[in-house]
């Protein structure tokens, strides 16, 4: 799938953006720094967004100071990033859109949604926070910023270890290299420092769009409690805890995250059915007596992904045994057989 790259000028900088796929527009902010071309070369990254693009027009952009956008920046508040989103939305003449904000991008998405309730139809906040000062003790934050500024090579590897905990060596090396390609050492240090000073608590309280909040339970970069606080601040938000340690959504068992996001975007509001489409498929096969290994083969998934799906199903239904899952399937009148998924298995699940 090929992306189309364009540029729009704000009062702060020339901002690069990309579009690909077809369908309802969904704008994605993946975090503190990015590079539209370099990140696209990462297999896990590209597969994640290509699946979104099967049913949506996916829009990404590089924040001022990073990637293909102008690398000069003097204002390190969240404002230039909100203005960048506003400019991209106006350039593409989007009357309404869905917004997926990940990590620091969740803060940008929250600010935009609060200020433009008429534009945001659905909002997904993944692995994000309300207050930057809750992310780390001041001395730890200062030490990490100093490391990035003094040795971007070592700093990028340290952040890779934290952001994609548990990923293989090749993925960690790609992520560290991508960070260095996306921003200079000084720009990265300034942007990282600004994260710790960000506070979007008031914006979260003013969001009116249906909102889904996702957070991995053992996130090594932004604590699970931060995601819970975000969900508590947004009126009517649905909170979905997910297993895993990796902070970045598109590595290590990305399938459950995509399932949650796509089901939510398709519904346009928090779903009344507790299971995602994929989880329902798995539940039907569990009810049919299939083992997790057999389900993985049949649906083209990694075994660990099926294990995670089954655990999600148990938690959501409030049951512990496979027999109880079978009872739920029977009561719903679901078929006891599903065809294998036509989608090829993704490397991370």
Offer a concise description of the structure.
The chain is of the alpha/beta class. The chain is built from 15 helices and 8 strands.
Tag the structure with descriptive keywords:
single chain, 349 residues, alpha/beta, Rossmann fold, Arc Repressor Mutant, subunit A, eight-stranded mixed sheet, 8 strands, globular, disordered C terminus
Q: Overview of this structure, please?
A:
With 349 residues, this protein is of the alpha/beta class. It folds into two domains: 4-267, Rossmann fold (3-Layer(aba) Sandwich); 277-332, Arc Repressor Mutant, subunit A. 47% of the residues lie in helices and 14% in strands. It is built from 15 helices and eight strands. It has helices at residues 36-40, 43-53, 79-91, 104-115, 138-150, 152-163, 169-182, 185-196, 201-205, 224-233, 255-267, 277-287, 292-299, 303-317, 322-332; strands spanning 4-9, 14-21, 25-29, 57-61, 97-102, 120-126, 211-216, 238-242. Strands 1-2-4-3-5-6-7-8 form an eight-stranded mixed sheet, with helices on both faces. α4 links the parallel β5 (97-102) and β6 (120-126). α5 (138-150) crosses α6 (152-163) and α13 packs across α14. It is globular, with a radius of gyration of 20 Å. Residues 336-349 have low confidence and may be disordered.
């Amino acid at each position: 799938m090929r992306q189309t790259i364009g540029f729009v000028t704000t009062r702060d900088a020339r901002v690069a953006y990309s579009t690909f796929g077809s369908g309802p527009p969904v704008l994605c902010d993946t975090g503190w720094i990015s590079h539209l071309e370099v990140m696209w070369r990462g297999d896990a990254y590209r597969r994640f967004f290509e699946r979104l693009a099967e049913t949506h027009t996916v829009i990404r952009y590089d924040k001022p100071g990073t990637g293909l956008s102008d690398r000069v920046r003097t204002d390190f508040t969240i404002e230039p990033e909100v203005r960048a989103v506003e400019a991209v939305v106006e350039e593409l003449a989007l009357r309404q859109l869905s917004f997926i904000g990940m990590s620091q991008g969740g803060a940008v998405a929250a600010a935009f949604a609060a200020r433009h309730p008429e534009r945001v139809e659905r909002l997904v906040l993944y692995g994000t926070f309300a207050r930057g000062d809750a992310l780390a003790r001041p001395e730890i934050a200062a030490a990490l910023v100093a490391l990035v500024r003094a040795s971007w090579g070592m700093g990028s590897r340290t952040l890779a270890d934290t952001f994609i905990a548990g990923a293989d060596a090749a993925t960690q090396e790609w992520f560290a290299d991508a960070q260095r390609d996306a921003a200079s050492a000084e720009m990265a240090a300034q942007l990282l420092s600004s994260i710790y000073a960000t506070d979007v608590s008031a914006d979260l309280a003013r969001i009116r769009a249906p909102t889904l909040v996702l957070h991995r339970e053992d996130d090594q970069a932004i604590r699970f409690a931060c995601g819970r606080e975000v969900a508590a601040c947004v009126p009517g938000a649905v909170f979905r805890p997910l297993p895993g340690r990796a902070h970045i959504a598109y590595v290590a068992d990305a399938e459950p995250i995509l399932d949650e996001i796509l089901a939510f975007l398709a519904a346009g509001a928090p779903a009344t059915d507790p299971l995602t489409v994929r989880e329902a498929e798995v539940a039907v096969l569990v009810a049919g007596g299939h083992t997790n290994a057999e389900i993985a083969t049949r649906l083209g998934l990694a075994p660990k992904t099926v294990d995670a799906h089954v655990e999600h199903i148990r938690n959501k239904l409030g049951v512990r045994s496979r027999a109880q899952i079978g009872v739920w399937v029977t009561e719903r009148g679901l078929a006891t057989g599903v065809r294998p998924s036509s989608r090829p298995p993704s490397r991370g699940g």
